[in-house]
Every structure is written in structure tokens, then in C-alpha cells.
Amino acid sequence: MADAGGAKAIEASKPEEKKKSPWLDAWHDPVAGMSCYSSFLCLADLVADGDHRLIMVDLKKRIRMYKGTTIQWEHKLPDVPCAVQAFYHEAANPPIPTLAVASGHRVLIFRNMRPSMQYRLPPIEIDPAEARIWEEMGQESADLQAGFEKLNTARENGVALSNLSIDFLAVEDLAAQAEYIRAHKDYLHEQQTSITCTEVLKQNMDEPTAVSMLVIGTENRMIYILNSDALNLAAKVKLEAVPTFISVLGLFDVEYRITVACRDGNIYTVKNGQVLSNVIELETQPVGLVRFDKNVYVGCMDNVIHCFHFKGKKNHSIYLPCPISCMSLLQITKSRVAKALVVALQNGEVRLYNGKHLIATVETNDVVSGIRLGTFGREEGSMVLSFKSGALMVKILQRNANLDGASINVGPPPEQDIPLDVPKKTKLYVEQTSREREQAIDMHRTFQRDLCKLRLSTARAYVNLLGTGHGPMSSSGGAQVRINAQVLGMGPQFKILVRVQNAGSSSLTDVPVHCTTNPNLYRIPKPCFYLPILVPQQVYLVEVPVTCINENGGTASVRIFLASKNSHVPLISAVVQMPISEPPLLDF
Questions:
Q1: What is the DSSP letter of 538?
Q2: Which of 131, 201, 312, 586 is the most exposed place for a label (fewest CB within 10 A)?
Q3: Which positions ≥6 away from 496 have C-beta within 8 Å?
Q4: Residue 245 forms beta bridges with which residues?
Q5: Which tens digit of pLDDT belongs to each residue from 451-501?
Q6: Which of 467, 560, 475 is nearest to 517 (CA)?
Q7: Element spanning 135, H or E
Q8: 152 in helix, strand or coil?
Q9: Distance (Å, rounded) from C-alpha 134 to C-alpha 166?
Q10: Would you report the helix, strand and coil content of the chain in percent, each value rounded to 5?
Q11: Residues 6+ positions from 233 with CB-CB distance below 8 Å
Q12: Largest CA distance in the chain
């Protein structure tokens, strides 16, 4: 909220006048009592009289229909809904749409505002290994503990267990496990999935009242396309992850594309029943998906809206001051042709974008939970907002509203026209400027010469460091060895932990190790020893005990050398600075 306040303060400081909002307040009901997500809202002409109704469902298992500002119909649902859609199942005159409410693994069909039928999704196939284990546990003399272990092993091996098996693995008591088996052994083959999202796809004509088909995304990573009567499957597609948002384009009988945002943070495209290889990878999880002509707008959890071409190329990004609540597309085709992106934010703002240009901002003073744009009543450019508090608001787009992003002044901010308070030029500054102008070539040559000398001296020092074995890795004598030393303990007894690694490709044998320090402060019992073999890429740990022998304590460094049998120059060395030690205890 602090970022949003800062953004408002910046906008308020601009000398430009506040733009007039293109939205008109039509209706506000603060006590509607239904808090709906975007998928819980639907606008449709349910009785073919040209007066579009608002259909709402909520988590309290209710479905309600508004005609204008009055509640025309309300019904109780058998289960918690997850989406509602209106589609035309036949080419009738007058065309009356069918209402579909997705709930669990079922699609409830309402025709003429009455429950008509329901469609159940195909059950999930149980893995044969899981079915075999349950068959063994269903016998009277079965070993439940052995079956428990087999199910656990099957899950670790990648077998997708059913919900029944997952719940069984959560039961630890043997008596409770036996009771669970007796109660559920006959229900294993009834594993069902759940619907996550829905959309409507035209079948063969791109008309508002053309015959259309339901597109359903489920928890078992499937996309189902039902035929027009919502009784049989027309097509199904397997995805890599669970779909959360769906956007469709085209005709089922000609060519169609389904853009799917999934829980793995990727955007997949399904073309004519086949998953395309061009996958859009997002940085964070998607919270909204809108298709705008050939572009795909994806809202993410990091307060950014990314715009991609439908083939996968990224166009631009829109950065927002606070998290995104929901997104939708404003599309007007009858009175005029206009399209815009509507984004609701958690701070109560509703923003209208044309491309990457901000057209207008509306303050609602409440958190928007769902948004639906379309025709409400007889007004085409209507925006229905459902709030977290249960309130309901309807706004209408002005008929002369300008949604053209090209008319927006795009360029530098007005602060750029304010001159900077530059101090006056001093005499020293003028003389230095004139000297640099007259001797620019000589100054550049001097700088380049000094820079080359610095690089040469640095390279020589580094070569000398490597030659004496003090570098991070030795490469002398054809051997590549790394060494790292760390001191352990508080004193007077210490232990130096030395890590040695052969970074080369051949083994080293009988490598001498020598430790040196101040003999007046420390004593090393075995300062010289050999490492029998150093296998390539293997890290060896060597412990070197050190004892402080000075009565007054003190500190010094311990140097560890890996010597070479063919040269007096060590392969590599490490220096450890010993901590300040307490004086050793004296024996009386």
C-alpha cells in the first residue's frame, strides 16, 4: 500500500489536470451478500428478449440471477461451484442459451432457469500397482502394515496414487487402518477429478448466438471439450500441469487455439487438439490470463503484467504498484469496435489499459474479488464488479469514451522541462576545462600508458604468486591442486582442518606435506608427513593438531606446504592465522 500511495503522490504532483473517467456509475448494492470470483460471474440473454441478465454463483452453494437491479431468480446448488458459463447448445429461433455450472467433477445444466441434467467427467484410471495392493489388503488375512509399506514405496517410485490411498497413508494406527480398509475397499475404482476452469468455444460460426461447446480444465491435467449438448466428449488433451486459466480462439470445426495458464508457472498452447512446443515460462505464478487479438496478457504474482505474442515472443511488461486481484477483456463490437484490458488491483483500483498505455483509473474503496465485462441489460459496455465485502457494483462505459492508446501523450515526464539549479562556473573550472580541451591527446596517452603499466605489474605479481605456490590453485609441474585450511578450537589445543583436492586428470602419489610456524608459540607433533594418493576430483580431509606452549599465550600464523618431489618450489601453500589463545595451564 505504501508503493501505491507513492505512485498517487507522484501523479498528484503533475501539473496536468486529472483525466475524466470514461465510466458512468450505474448501480451499487453494498448489501448484495455475494462475494464472487471472476469465474463466478456471467452475462447472458437467457430469455432471448434482448435484455441480458447477470448470473452469479458463490461458495455458499447459491446461484442468483439479476434482471437490472432486481433479483429475478435464485436457486440452491448441490455442491460448491467453481465456474459458470452460458452457451448455445442448438441453433434455435429465438436462440436461448444454456447455463452450465461447474461443481466438483460435475457440470450442472440449467435450461429455461430449471435444472435439466448433469454431466460427470470421466473417472481417473487407477494405477494397476495400486489396485493390486488394495486387492491384497481387502482380504481377511491381509497384512495391513505390509500393504502400507507397499503404498508408500509406490508413491516414492513415482506412482500417482488416488486420494483414497493418500488418505490411508495418513492413518498410522493399525486399528484405524483396518477400519479404513473395511469402509473404503469397494470405492477404489471411483476416483474422480475436479474442475478448475471453464471456457466456451464456438463450433462452426463466429456469431454471438452460434452453437458453442464447453472447454473444461481439471485437476488431473486434462482439457476436455464437450459437444454442444454437453453430454459427450468431443476431444481431450493431456497437459504437463494443472490448468488454472483458459482462453480460447477460433472455431472447433475449422481451427482453434486454447491458451492455458498452469500451476507450474508456464503458458501452454493447444492447437486443434495438439499441445504445441512453444511454452512460455513465467517468473512467478499466474493470477490472470486475457487474450487480446494476437497477444496474450498474463498477470503474475510479482505485480507485473507480461504481454506475449501468441507464438511466445515477449512484447512488453506493465509494472503495477500492488498485487493483481483479477483481469478481464473489454470488447465492444456492435456500436463500434473497441478493445481494452481491465485490471483490478488489491488497493481498490480498477485500471483500463490499451496495450501498454493506461487509459483511466477508477477508485472503488474496496477489494475487488471478481469482474465481468459485457452486455448487461441493453448496454454493451458494462462492467460488473463483485467485492470481497459482498457488495455489487455496475458501471457503464461512456459511448463517446476514447479508448485509443495512440491519442495518449507518450514521452518524457513534465519534470524534464523544469531547469536544474546548476551552480555558476568558477575560474578553476574554466581553466581546467580549457586545459583538458587543449591537451586532450597527451592526457589520453598518459592515461593509457599508466593503465598498461598497472596491468603489467598486476600480471607479474599474479605470476609470482602462482610460482611460489601461494595462489588458490597450483598448476606447476603439471599438477593442479587446491588447498584450503581452517582452524578449529579455542586453545591451547587447536586442530587445523586441511582440505586438499586434486583438480587434475591424473592421480598424485606420495605428496609431501610440511607445516611450519613459530616454535616459541606453537608445537606441531608431526610437522611433516605424506599423502599416499590424491585421486582426481576427490576432496581429502587432513587434521593437523597444534598446541600453544607459550605461558603468556599469543598468536601467529601456520603455513602448510604441499611440496613437489621434482622441484624446490612447493605445489601450493595455505596460511592459517591462529586465534589469540589463553596461556596453557601449569602443573604444580
A1: -
A2: 586
A3: 485, 486, 487, 488, 515, 543, 544, 545, 546, 558, 560, 576
A4: 261
A5: 999 999 999 988 877 666 555 556 555 678 888 899 998 878 899 999 999
A6: 560
A7: helix 128-137
A8: helix
A9: 12
A10: 20, 45, 40
A11: 122, 224, 225, 226, 227
A12: 114
Contact predicate 554/526, CB 8 Å: no
Residue pair 31/38 in contact (Cβ under 8 Å)? The answer is no
* CB count in 10 Å sphere of residue 506: 11
Residue spans of beta strands (DSSP E) within 346-378: 349-354, 357-363, 368-376
| pTM of the predicted protein model | 0.65
d(CA 101, CA 196): 12
Model confidence pLDDT, tens digit, residues 27-64: 999 999 999 999 999 999 999 898 999 999 999 999 99
The set of long-range contacts for 340-347, using a CB threshold of 8 Å and a minimum separation of 24, is 340/403, 341/290, 341/292, 341/297, 341/305, 342/371, 342/373, 342/383, 343/288, 343/299, 343/305, 344/368, 344/371, 344/385, 345/4, 345/320, 345/321, 346/322, 347/1, 347/4, 347/321, 347/322
Integer Cα distance of 479 and 507 in angstroms: 9
* Cross-strand partners of 494: 546
Start-to-end CA span in the chain (Å) = 71
- Identify which of 559, 564, 562 has the alpha carbon closest to the alpha carbon of residue 575: 559
Question: How far is Cα 338 from Cα 373, in angstroms, rounded to an integer?
Answer: 13
Record the cell numbers describing residue 196, joined without a space.
478448475
Q: What is the CA radius of gyration of the chain?
A: 37
CB 342 within 8 A of CB 336: no
Joined grid coordinates for residue 22: 470514461
Q: Is-contact 103 81, C-beta < 8 A? A: yes
Stretches where the chain sits below pLDDT 70 are 1-19, 186-190, 405-413, 466-478, 581-588
Give the residue among 285, 322, 289, 318 at the shortest CA–CA distance from 304. Answer: 318
| 93 touches 80 (CB < 8 A) | no
> Strands 539-548 and 233-238, how do they pair?
unpaired
Q: Give the long-range contacts of residues 549-552, CB within 8 A, separation 24 or more.
A: 549/492, 549/520, 549/521, 549/522, 549/523, 549/584, 550/520, 550/521, 550/583, 550/584, 551/583, 551/584, 551/586, 552/583
CB 509 within 8 A of CB 499: no
- 293-316 exposure pattern, b = at least 16 Cβ within 10 A, e = fewer: eebbbbbbeebbbbbbebeeeeee
Q: Is 16 helix (H, G, I), strand (E, B) or coil?
A: coil
Distance CA 548, CA 522 (A): 5
Q: C-alpha grid cell for residue 513?
A: 606435506
* The pLDDT of residue 123: 86
Provide the sign of the torsion angle of the four alpha carbons 169, 171, 177, 183, taken in this order: negative
| Angle (CA) 300 305 308, round 5° | 105
CA–CA gap between residue 558 and residue 486 (Å, rounded): 11
Query: Three-class SS of residue 299?
Result: strand
